[in-house]
Design brief:
Number of strands: 8
Oligomer: single chain
Distance between the termini: 148 Å
Radius of gyration: 50 Å
Number of helices: 9
Structural class: alpha+beta
CATH superfamily of the domain at 84-188: Band 7 domain
Order of helices and strands: HHEEEEEEEHHHHEHHH
CATH architecture of the domain at 84-188: 2-Layer Sandwich
CATH class of the domain at 84-188: Alpha Beta
Length: 348
């Protein structure tokens, strides 16, 4: 072997040694720094990379779940992209300046495609530095629009919707989705709460009195219509009770009484027109057409009046929110005695 061949072989062996040594060193570094090179993104999380030598935070790319390979000197930050909840105890002032304490739970989640910008501007503590101030401010703004009585009696869903509407119109909603808000508890001062409950109790009693008056008015109208019907019934019956009919019915009763096998006593009337019946002494001497008159003077015998045209006993209804005793209700109650009688001229 010549010297040239020997030199070439030695040079090749030297390069091979360098390559093997480099690979061994690289493998050792990989084993030493594998936690800084290979990063696992857990389920529900996303990753943001910070390039130390290439311009800082990469705002154009967000790493999803799985294995991520990066340079060992680059930073990598994990963010929870799932639904998150945070509970707040907010002390606010109502419209009249009363202190109100609200316990609320906010459900939110960051937008995946905006998490890199969220990290660049607010960092991993974006909940405390961004979400919480906005949520507390929205709750206080809504509570300041309503009085203590409204907050106590108002539907909680309405307050929830107003708070969510304010959150969703805020600039923060471009990076964070506000999904829901639950109002867990609302504390009002004891003296204010007692006053509100007394007011509500008085309102319920007032409504109950108004309902009773309305029911009594309806019952009075019903009895009036019933009385008109009874009056018309007796008027029709009275017109049918002629002396001839009474005499004939008396004869039939006498015959039936005579056919009876039991002992009997027949009481005969004293007048010449009296039949042997226990009917009194003046029934046969009724004047022709006698008896009560038909109310509302119907055109046809036995017809009832037009109920729609019949004057009401209580022409002015009492509103449910008025007190049970007012000057207007007293006047309405005395009207039927004076001028709102039935069309025939007399009240039942």
């Amino acid at each position: 072997m010549s010297d040239a061949d020997t030199a070439r072989a030695w040079a090749g062996d030297r390069w091979l040694t360098w390559i093997i040594g480099a690979l061994l060193v690289l493998g050792f570094l990989v084993l030493l720094l594998w936690r800084m090179i290979f990063v696992v993104v857990p389920p529900g999380y996303v990753g943001v990379v910070f390039h130390l030598l290439l311009g800082g935070v990469d705002t154009r790319r967000v790493f999803s779940e799985g294995l991520v390979v990066k340079l060992p000197w680059d930073g990598f930050y994990l963010y929870d992209a799932r639904e998150q909840s945070h509970t707040y105890v907010v002390q606010a002032l109502s419209a009249e300046g009363m202190k109100v304490t609200v316990h609320a739970t906010l459900l939110f989640r960051p937008q995946r495609e905006r998490i890199a910008l969220l990290h660049q501007n607010w960092g991993p503590n974006y909940i405390d530095s961004l979400v919480s101030p906005v949520a507390v401010g929205a709750i206080r703004d809504v509570l300041a629009l309503h009085g203590s009585h409204d907050l106590y009696t108002r539907d909680a869903l309405d307050v929830r919707e107003e708070v969510l509407a304010r959150l969703r119109t805020n600039l923060v909603s471009e990076m964070v989705n506000f999904d829901d808000l639950s109002l867990l508890q609302m504390d009002i001062p004891a003296d204010v709460l007692q006053a509100i409950e007394e007011k509500l109790t008085a309102q319920q009693e007032q409504d109950a009195y108004a309902f009773r008056i309305s029911s009594e008015q309806s019952e009075a109208e019903r009895k009036r219509i019933e009385a008109i019907g009874i009056q018309n019934f007796y008027a029709i019956v009275a017109k049918a009770l002629t002396p001839e009919l009474l005499t004939w019915r008396g004869i039939e009763a006498t015959v039936d009484l005579a056919k009876s096998s039991n002992a009997k006593i027949v009481i005969v009337g004293g007048g010449k027109d009296q039949m042997p019946l226990i009917l009194g002494s003046d029934i046969a001497t009724l004047p022709p057409g006698g008896g009560p008159s038909v109310d509302a003077a119907p055109a046809t015998a036995g017809a009832l009046p037009d109920w729609q045209q019949l004057p009401k006993l209580f022409p002015v209804p009492i509103a449910p929110t008025k007190l049970p005793i007012t000057s207007g209700s007293a006047g309405a109650g005395s009207t039927p005695a004076g001028g709102t009688a039935s069309p025939a001229g007399g009240t039942p």
